[in-house]
């Protein structure tokens, strides 16, 4: 069925992000399990708990609309998950996987941030004030999660991973 109204688009996007958040609960558990650094593991575990609460907020929005929660496959999240699976099949070292996972999680947070910003804008146009308030709570959490991931990535010591390429670039730069 074609989407022809803002309300239909809003509902489509709501189902899309509901699907994405459910998939991300699973992915965050995997990322935490693959984390060798306690602070990174904790960040993924904490955000997993936040994501479970975000799912509850989305269910509240469905309720506000008088609907049962329903998913629609989110191609964007599916693509990010496939990228992770593909990289994992290459059997990277634990250290490289740690760096990759932090980057993959940041990509996902940016995707989610944009999704919620769009839902907020649609919600405003449709005058769905309570939904907008719930989305704003989640948006704040997603932005904080991104900042935390960025800080963890910045603080991660990658010196042992530079290999000869890193030392030759340092020598030629100096």
Describe this structure in words.
The protein has one domain: Ferritin (Up-down Bundle), CATH 1.20.1260. Helix 3 (75-89) packs antiparallel against helix 4. With 174 residues, the protein is mainly alpha-helical. Helices cover 81% and strands 0% of the residues.
Would you summarize the structure shown here?
This protein is 81% helix and 0% strand. It is an all-alpha fold and 174 residues long. Helix 1 packs parallel to helix 3 (75-89).
CATH class category: Mainly Alpha
Global mean pLDDT: 92
In helices, the fraction of residues equals: over 70%
The helix-strand sequence is: HHHHHH
Fraction in beta strands: under 5%
Number of discrete helical segments:
6
The residue ranges in which pLDDT falls below 50 over 5 or more consecutive positions are 166-172
- Backbone shape: elongated
- Report, as a whole number of angstroms, the end-to-end distance: 61 Å
CATH homologous group name? Ferritin, core subunit, four-helix bundle
Number of domains: 1
Q: Would you tell me the structural class of the helices and strands?
A: mainly alpha
- CATH architecture descriptor: Up-down Bundle
* SS elements, strand count: 0
CATH third-tier fold name: Ferritin
* CA-atom Rg in angstroms: 19 Å
List the helices and strands and how they pair.
Blueprint: H1 6-34, H2 38-64, H3 75-89, H4 94-125, H5 129-155, H6 163-173
Helix pairs in contact: 1-2, 1-3, 1-4, 2-5, 3-4, 4-5
């Amino acid at each position: 069925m074609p989407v022809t109204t803002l309300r239909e688009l809003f509902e489509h996007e709501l189902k899309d992000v509901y699907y994405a958040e459910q998939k991300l609960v699973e992915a965050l558990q995997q990322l935490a399990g693959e984390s060798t650094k306690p602070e990174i593991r904790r960040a993924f575990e904490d955000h997993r708990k936040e994501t479970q609460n975000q799912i509850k907020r989305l269910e509240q929005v469905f309720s506000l609309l008088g609907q049962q929660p329903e998913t629609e496959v989110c191609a964007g999240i599916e693509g990010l998950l496939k990228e992770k699976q593909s990289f994992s099949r290459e059997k990277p070292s634990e250290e490289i996987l740690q760096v990759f996972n932090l980057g993959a999680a940041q990509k996902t947070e940016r995707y989610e941030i944009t999704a919620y910003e769009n839902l907020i804008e649609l919600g405003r146009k449709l005058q769905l004030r309570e939904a907008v308030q719930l989305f704003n709570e989640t948006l704040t959490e997603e932005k904080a999660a991104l900042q935390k991931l960025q800080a963890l990535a910045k603080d991660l010591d990658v010196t042992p991973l530079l290999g000869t390429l890193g030392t030759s670039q340092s020598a030629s730069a100096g």
